[in-house]
Amino acid sequence: MAVSLFKQLQIVWDYHLVNQEIRKSDAIFVLCSYDLRVAEHAAQLYLDGYAPLLIFSGAQGRATEGLFTLSEAETFANVAKDMGVPSSAIIVETKATNTGENIFFTQALLKERNISVSSLILVQKPYMERRLLATFLKNWNDIEFCISSPNISFINYPTDEITFDHIASIILGELHRLKVYPTLGYQEAQEIPDEVWQAFENLTQLGFDEYLLTNDN
């Protein structure tokens, strides 16, 4: 059963990855979270010359309440500064609490500062890549973009703070959103192969259902 369980989780994990080639762009747009490895990855992209501007967006959500003393965006920005990114190259947006707000609030902030971008590198956690794609196709599709995340495998993703059960439950929650959110107008529909959805049904029946959508969310 353990082998079967891992294989099914790997199927879902692999589906979330869109495996896009990274191109030099006008800015690196980071959708912040609890995982500081994402901040490090984004900062390294900047240091490697992929874009002259680094944008961090994120307030303080359920996962980071009590974890960070500052907003997610400010915390990520401090990681980047510690790695050598100059403050002058960083924009911080601290109000967004979901992916849609990350987009809309950042669009407004760039407009307010008279900053025009025609291409972006989007940076998130690995298991958020496909939902990021679907959301941007729906809500910011008049620019060129590519998606990147830290190169961490499913088996190596858990840490002392991020447990295996948490990752298992959350990647199923992300898949559920990919199924439901297009019907609500939040994102573009993504084809979900039968093998992936069967794994979802099997795994949620085993109890990995903590992050599934309910009538309340």
From TrEMBL:
Transmembrane stretches, start-end: none
Protein's name according to its UniProt entry: DUF218 domain-containing protein
Cross-referenced InterPro entries: Cell_Envelope_Assoc, DUF218, Rossmann-like_a/b/a_fold
Superkingdom in the source lineage: Bacteria
Alphabetized PANTHER family for the sequence: DUF218 DOMAIN-CONTAINING PROTEIN, INNER MEMBRANE PROTEIN, PROBABLE PERMEASE
Residues covered by the DUF218 domain: 26-159
One Pfam match: DUF218
Annotated Gene Ontology cellular component terms: plasma membrane
